[in-house]
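[job 4417] fold queue: 2 targets
>>> target A
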Amino acid sequence: MEIKRYPNNGCCERLHLDVCVDERTPRDGILELLRKLRPEWKTEDIQIKAFTEGITNQLMGCYVGSLTQGPVLLVRVYGQMTELFMDRGKEMEMFQVLHKHGCGPELYCSFTNGICYEFVRGVVLDDALLKQPSVYRLIAREMGKIHSIKSEKTGNCSPVLWSRLSQFLNLVQSSDAPEQQKSSAHVEAPSLKIIIKEMEELKSHLTHINSPVVLCHNDLLTKNVIYNQEEGTVKFIDYEYADFNYQAYDIGNHFNEFAGTSNVDSSLYPSGELQFDWLTAYLESFKRFNGVDSAVTKKEVLKLYVQVCNFSLVGHLFWCLWALLQAKHSTIDFDFQRYAVARFNYYFEKKQEFFGMKLP
């Protein structure tokens, strides 16, 4: 097994193991990783549990003894062809930046087709927890903390949104791969011509909305939030899309995710009352971590609310294109084309309500 160490853009050194884990029979590859990472663990005692929440990659927890009591190491095996549209170097950089600021788990190593990292104890959020004030305020505060992390690079950081959308669109247009899975609902894929038209209209509109560019998670669905009730904390996991982006996009994208993934229900989009309470907690945190007076006015909350409503729209097109790509390449058992259609329809429903919204 070849071992390499890479510098990581000014962050701490990154360990890389030249091991490939077979997604169909992963145990042998995982054991090879553990011989280096956890040499004190006896092979016969190692247990591996598959987690099923993800729809992009395979995730497995490795432990000796008890999953709930002892140390657990997570192994994530990348989904097929995801390297086409994901910057794995950026993902590992984000792991280390967020861990350095106390916002994320430790990255143990990368390997040929995945990464190993620290297990975050707690429960994955469900719809009921997501709407509990004590929990969603924790999420808002944690996002405010992450958004306050400054770039270690000189100069301004450009938002990744439009370049990623263009990348996804180009990949969908150029891909001649047949869909890996047929849609169970036999739905017709959304029209790329219409998506392009809507993207251009949104870009023209949103560039006039002065949303700050901050360090964003960019994929804060419920399954990427871990809640530890005993400690009264939340942590965000999975940084495949983390990068600098528009503040209002990251918040709006999270609000969109209240509608769910397996069965998208737009009626679950958070109420105005919940949004205002969430945004107040967020602004208090964002200001505090930026070293300014954390008092928040109604005018500030209303301004951010309007920005979030507008930016939330582009999130639907982003995940629609993402799902069309996954439908062509992923081997994971999920109806990506049906999801693309659901987000496409969700977009047009919310566009009537949000597009062009301005401060009263």
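>>> target B
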Amino acid sequence: MQTSTTSKLLVSDIASSVDRVPSSYIRQISDRPNISDVDIFGDSIPLIDLQELYGPSRANIIHQFAHACSSYSFFQIKNHGVPEKTIERMMTVAREFFHQPESERVKHYSADTKKTTRLSTSFNVGSEKVSNWRDFLRLHCLPIEDFINEWPSHPVSFREITAEYATSVRALVLILLEAISESLGLEKDRVSNTLGKHGQHMALNYYPPCPQPDLTFGLPGHKDPNLITVLLQDEVSGLQVFKDGKWIAVHPIPNTFIVNMGDQMQVISNDKYKSVLHRAVVNSDKERISIPTFYCPSFDAVVGPQQELINEEEDSPAIYRSFTYAEYYEKFWDRALATESCIDTFKISKT
């Protein structure tokens, strides 16, 4: 059994043949999910209805953004404008991709974190000591025409459906960035204008059933390196957010997206909106699929705190130095996934 599992590249090709988690996935006792400590019934993240964003209630919606971004850094949105059919088709084709024979899926396998289209497992197999119970297909998708021919051609509808989804989600992101920019007291196009030519990546995450989910993670606690993340998840719970010293389970609500702030938003807002820890747990009964869209600056964009949010006289100095997103992104992928983000290495030292 051990020989056959270690020869497999992907956890989805191990999961169905084991009744115990292989040792390479088992975390130290102090670093396990400890599900009994998770708040599954109490506080959750805010839900913002975008229906009135362009109506007379815009100021109220902008206020909701400010509260959600400053107090939680995570929120859900409904009436977001992405067609329900587009969402259904994306989730269906993602499931079809991961249900293909191993020989078809592994055509796209790579451990090279610089590849713009790749199937891999865990997080960064080259730098981590303990593996995570996750496979993922990562895609760059802006501009789509630069990358679509790299994407999987099977299932046959994959490219068409994924392109339609990525385009719809990008339109939503641009609306969100205007609202977030306004909620910071900036001009509505200010955040968008800091991103250079913009960047957009997607991941299709597949978490197979796990025989001992209390011993491992789908993804351990981490913060996102990008600007904002827009997450689509299926009906299976697994996402947890860290708030006020405890983990909170975020249960799926049909036809909503989950939005969270990433490290670049923390820098641009000069710590007003902070990147926040979140993680994915697994279960023994059901597979889970989640599809995050990572929106980010283009690699040549220079990121730094916005001038209007800096005031030396009122004790609001710039907390971070300026840097290119390429510099940040390389630092992020050079290591294993960790609870500490790279962001502290870009802070201006106080002397």
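[job 4417] complete. Note on B: DSSP finds ten helices and 14 strands in the chain.
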